[in-house]
Write a structure and sequence with these properties.
The complex is a heterodimer of chains A (729) and B (151).
Chain A lengths: L11 H6 L14 E7 L5 E8 L9 E4 L22 E2 L5 E7 L2 H9 L1 E7 L6 H4 L12 E9 L8 E9 L11 E6 L5 E5 L4 H12 L4 E5 L12 H16 L3 E4 L2 H7 L6 E9 L5 E11 L7 H11 L8 E9 L14 H19 L3 H8 L18 H13 L16 E14 L5 H5 L2 E7 L2 E5 L9 H13 L6 E3 L18 H24 L6 H6 L7 E6 L8 E2 L4 E2 L4 E14 L5 E11 L6 H21 L28 E7 L21 H13 L10 H9 L6
Chain B lengths: L1 E5 L2 E5 L7 H8 L18 E4 L2 E4 L12 E3 L1 H4 L6 H9 L8 H14 L5 H7 L11 H9 L6
Classes of the chains: A alpha+beta (729), B alpha+beta (151).
The structure holds FE2/S2 (inorganic) cluster (2 copies).
Chain lengths: 729, 151
């Protein structure tokens, strides 16, 4: 038995002895280093690019927009150029590229490219963007609008509660900065190797840019992604390939941390207004929402982020009627993109804070209010989906039991016991749709290949291990089904020349969707061996023994979409997700009422994971996501300069939690199986991001009476709220 | 020319005296275990030990290690993997692994001084190293359990 046990991660030994090769550890012979010339303006016409005549340009390769065959970063829309030519739409936008024999020379050469601009008016405020005379995207600066209507409004008696909730930018802050290599191939094509989540996104982007199919993409060991390495690496790979093409040499581009912070995507900021009608007993009758998200200058994945936000904005709660409207707009700021949770954390921050506001208004206990509205079996969501086995009450009960159990003192952070410390506990609940929205998987048709050679099974998937542990889980799934030792299942390299397209490594879908396909592939492999061996033997080795010793086999399985899933993209009605994960988080903290600082003591999480395929890896995902969410709650703030660029572009001033900031965590895995996932597993990568911020806000309120409604709850904001209690901020 | 010992071997480099030790290790000596996460002393991914002390090698000019004993994560695994390395593997303390070499060097230095640290002592000793994947829970687990209490 392998499922439900925790064999150490496959790539663990290399990682602990330092022999894993990450992109920047690779240095092919003759490799040049690339650097990027970036826009210094938010919105300007580019009049020209010149080489500084005082600089020694020997040995330097320069590439501009004019050298790009098809100047588009292929993703969802075709609005983003690989290199901006005529107009620059955000500060730090790539305008040109240089390559040189050393990194220092490349950086110096990039500084020696002189750009002449004619400034144009820039637009930064997302609330003014729609229909503004200053045009960024389309005719109205709207990337996407989504509305959901269900039930009828009016004619009900109740109490109206309105609130406005905000969230800021957040940086993924993978510890390995972006890094990508392009290597010329003997056949005139290119191999791209680097730090990435989605090899096939890059494969498509580079092929389309070049108009040449001779491209393969290989993932190097990747030092974290969290969504940040979903779409941006496509552009970076195009850059490296352009320089390799112009120089005829391998080219590596590794961002310095400050460049990575300034240039790459962040979590979408949001402004969410909620307007509800509740009965005196606390039942939500009407739920209205208006969401504004800031997508930045290019679309990237904004449509999908907005979609996930609107689908989660009620929180895990019922309402008799809903009217949800969302818009994601363009501004002249660096594009925002994928980040763990993908719009759902912003939406559920608002939903949970609003629950607390309703409780305050009605004089009800916040927990009791949640119990009265939490989804139950057979409840119908805003999209009309009938819920089966909703896990809200199960995770709530598990979290409460764990939080109330007597604790070993050693597992509570001592905090600082100054007299000005106020202590508080807060709780929040969330749900999270697993996998792609609606029939998204039907479009992707993710594939898994299994090959048998010398008695070993090789798994070919394009899904990448960026730390979650999928290199370990896939062998567990296949070995379990075939009844063999996990050591006999190996992973093929994530090289688009060798593995089929399993779809992107996003949306908490790898273990659940691609893992489910791997399980189906293992069954298909058995059937294949049975027909080759002309035997109905079940055992893998028994089947192999009937074949020639050097026999090989290969099967490719495509994700089988559940025919019962009905989804209407136009009305946003139907089964929004194949299943949902559920989460409850309880935070114990102290507030320093002199400084406004929040100190975390202990966090209990209870998460419905369907089935914990590998409990150590599963709890590791949850703990890491939980701390990322606590950082978003109180510490992480992106400060923009007058050009819309990140001013605090260093780790000295963009602060993420350290081991001293982190609480002790109690991680409860609740297992409510999903029939469509391998052995019942659900996606778990993103849900840990959903609850913590709201639980922290409730705890701060419990400790001090200060109610905060904007993230991050920095010491300044906490102090301001302490000084004006009762005010909404 | 700077001469020092690295992972038990005599090495020398002609790199400029003010070159960062991190670059000499990674580029000249090809010890790519130490990583660059920030280049300014904030993330700890580049941590190595100089005469036993954990130091961020992105902040150290190579001339400062003249005659010193430098150890990287590759050296920590020689001749056999250190107890804290095994504990990281066993407790799931490495996820993406990019921070792991730095944590291991800081943790090994702590355990030399204090083989049975409390969870709080471990947190203090590791506060200069950033990890974005684990929430630190399993890293602390691994460090406090690396050296069996009964041993
Ligand atoms: S690279 Fe040295 S501390 Fe970050
Ligand atoms: S394991 Fe990824 S940063 Fe620590």
């Amino acid at each position: 038995m392998s499922i439900g046990t925790s064999p150490p991660r496959r790539d663990g030994l290399e990682k602990i002895v330092g022999s894993s090769l990450y992109a920047d550890d690779l240095r092919p012979d003759g490799c040049l280093y690339g650097a990027t010339v970036r826009s210094s303006r938010a919105h300007a016409r580019i009049l020209g690019l010149r080489r500084d005549p005082a600089f020694d340009w020997t040995g330097v390769t320069l590439v501009t927009a004019a050298d790009v065959p098809t100047n588009i970063v292929t993703l969802m829309t075709d609005d983003q150029p690989v290199l901006a030519g005529g107009i620059t739409r955000h500060v730090h936008e790539p305008l040109a590229l240089v390559a040189a024999p050393t990194r220092e020379q490349a950086l110096a050469a990039a500084r020696a490219v002189i750009v002449d601009y004619e400034d144009l008016p820039a637009l930064f405020d997302p609330e003014l963007a729609e229909g503004n005379a200053i045009q960024i995207f389309g005719h109205d600066n709207v990337f996407k609008k989504i509305s959901i209507r269900r039930g009828t409004f009016g004619g009900r008696q109740g109490i109206r509660v309105r609130g406005r909730y905000q969230t800021g930018l957040q940086e993924q802050l993978y510890i390995e900065p972006m890094s990508m290599l392009a290597l010329p191939r003997p056949d005139g094509g290119f191999t791209v190797q680097g730090s990435m989540q989605c090899p096939y996104y890059i494969d498509r982007a580079v092929k389309r840019m070049l108009g040449d199919e001779r491209v393969n993409v290989v993932q190097a060991v990747t030092g974290g992604g969290f969504g940040g390495k979903e779409e941006y690496p496509s552009m970076l790979a195009c850059h490296a390939v352009l320089l390799a093409r112009a120089s005829g040499r391998p080219v590596k581009i590794t961002y310095r941390r400050d460049e990575d912070l300034r240039a790459t995507t962040k979590r979408h900021p949001s402004i969410i207004e909620l307007d509800t009608l509740v009965s005196p007993g606390g039942h939500v009758l009407e739920f209205g929402a208006r969401i504004v998200m800031d997508g930045g200058a290019y679309h990237t994945l904004s449509t999908v982020v907005l979609s996930r936000a609107i689908l989660h904005v009620t929180g895990p709660y019922r309402a008799e009627a809903v009217a949800l409207d969302g818009v994601c707009v363009a501004t002249h700021t660096p594009p925002n993109g994928a980040f763990r949770g993908f719009g759902a954390p912003q939406a559920q921050w608002a939903a949970e804070r609003h629950m607390d506001r309703v409780a305050r208004t009605l004089g009800l206990d916040p927990l009791e209010l949640r119990r009265r509205n939490l989804y139950k079996e057979g409840d119908i969501t805003a999209t009309g989906q009938v819920l089966h086995d909703p896990g809200g009450f199960a995770v709530l009960d598990r979290a409460l039991a764990a939080a109330e159990a007597p604790v070993d003192d050693k597992t509570i952070r001592p905090g600082v016991t100054a007299p000005a410390m106020a202590r508080g506990r807060g709780l929040a609940l969330a749900w999270h749709g697993c996998g792609f929205t609606g029939n998204g998987e039907a479009k992707i048709k993710g594939k898994v290949a299994l090959e048998v050679r010398d008695g070993t099974v090789y798994v070919g998937i394009a899904s990448t291990d960026i730390g979650q542990g999928t290199e370990t889980i896939f062998p567990q799934i296949v070995a379990e089904e075939l009844g063999i030792d996990t050591a006999r299942v190996q992973m093929l390299p994530h090289d688009t020349a060798q593995v089929p397209d399993s779809g992107p490594t996003v949306a908490s879908r790898t273990a659940m969707v691609v893992g489910g396909t791997a399980l189906a592939a293992a069954r298909a492999l058995r059937r294949h061996l049975q027909s080759t061996a002309m035997s109905d033997e079940h055992g893998f080795d028994a089947l192999l023994s009937r074949l020639a010793p050097d026999a090989t086999a290969r099967v490719v399985e495509t994700y089988e979409v559940d025919a019962n899933i009905q989804w209407d993209m136009d009305t946003y009605q139907g089964d929004a997700y194949p299943c949902y994960g559920w989460s409850c988080v309880i935070v114990d903290l102290r507030v320093d009422t002199d400084t406004g600082e929040v100190i975390y003591d202990r966090v209990v999480t209870a998460t419905d994971v369907g089935r914990a395929l590998n409990p150590v890896l599963a709890s590791g995902q949850i703990e890491g996501g939980t701390l990322q969410a606590l950082g978003w709650a109180t510490q992480e703030e992106v400060v923009l300069d007058s050009r819309g660029g990140m001013r605090n572009d260093r780790l000295t001033n963009y602060i993420i939690p350290t081991a001293l900031d982190a609480p002790e965590m109690v991680t409860e895995l609740v297992e409510i199986p999903f029939a469509g996932g391998p052995f019942g597993a659900k996606g778990i990568g993103e849900i840990p991001m959903d609850c913590p911020a709201a639980a922290v806000a409730q705890a701060i309120e419990a400790a001090t009476g200060a109610a905060l409604h904007a993230l991050p709850m920095t010491p300044e904001r906490v102090l301001a709220a302490l000084e004006t209690p009762g005010e909404s901020r | 020319m700077t001469r020092f010992r690295c992972n038990g071997m005599d090495v020398q480099t002609g790199a400029a005296p003010m070159s960062r030790l991190l670059d000499v290790l990674r580029e000249d000596l090809r010890y790519t275990g130490p990583k660059e996460g920030c280049g300014e002393g904030e993330c700890g991914a580049c941590t190595v030990r100089i005469d036993g002390e954990p130091v961020m090698s992105c902040l150290v000019p190579v001339c400062q290690v003249e005659g010193a004993e430098v150890q990287t994560v590759e050296g920590l695994a020689q001749p056999v993997v250190h107890a804290v390395q095994s504990a990281f593997l066993q407790h799931g303390a490495a996820q993406c692994g990019i921070c792991t070499p730095g944590f291991l060097m800081a943790a090994a230095a702590l355990l030399d001084e204090n083989p049975h640290p409390t969870r709080e002592e471990a947190r203090v000793a590791l506060a200069g190293n950033l990890c974005r994947c684990t929430g630190y829970q399993k890293i602390v687990d691994a460090v406090v359990r690396a050296i069996a209490k009964e041993a």
